[in-house]
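haha ok so turns out i had the wrong file open the whole time. this is the CORRECT one, sorry everyone. sequence first:
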Amino acid sequence: MRIISKRSLRECWTRHREAEQALRAWFHEIQHLEWRSSAEVKRSFPSADILPGNRVVFNIKGNHYRLIASIHYNTGILFVRFVGTHTEYDQVDATTI
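then structure:
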């Protein structure tokens, strides 16, 4: 997958240093995958939540952090829409962010 944008991940781990290793690991794993459907996402990440509109919520670092992505399966592009703590996640609408 082509990931847009790593900058969002960097901004999160700058604010939350303890998240850096987990976010880097997530990034490196995702960039080597080529998903064509949400079912393939679930096979790779069983704890991921599939939302309407090709949105996926990933649990990062034992669910201490959440990452919302919009995935364009036809082009192989994953857009990072949000990354933050679980508390920050509770303040956004994952289906519209």
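The two ends are 20 Å apart (CA to CA).
again sry for the mixup
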